[in-house]
Amino acid sequence: QVQLVESGGGVVQGGGSLRLSCAASGRTASTYDWGWFRQAPGKERELVARIMASGGIADYPSSVKGRFTISRDNAKNTVYLQMNSLKPEDTAVYYCSARRGGINYWGKGTQVTVSS
Length: 116
Description:
116 residues; mainly beta
């Protein structure tokens, strides 16, 4: 089992940037598929970025493509989400997930609020 802790959320003005971090317990980063999801009030949770155990990165959804970048530091056992040119519609709770063997693990989330 892996435990995930997100950090880096906060309040930012539109057009600003934030970098989210997801720290995982144990030496796990390179053996899991990782994802960043977000959930806004009244909306379903949506995937915004995914990086595979192999290091391959899935296509970003159009809502964040060109603005968000996922990366991984195996030495630090941490996955990042760099978010640039933030928009008010990016406001949500952002969750980190790790997946292996059909099992998904989740962090508790970090709030991102983008003001207009």
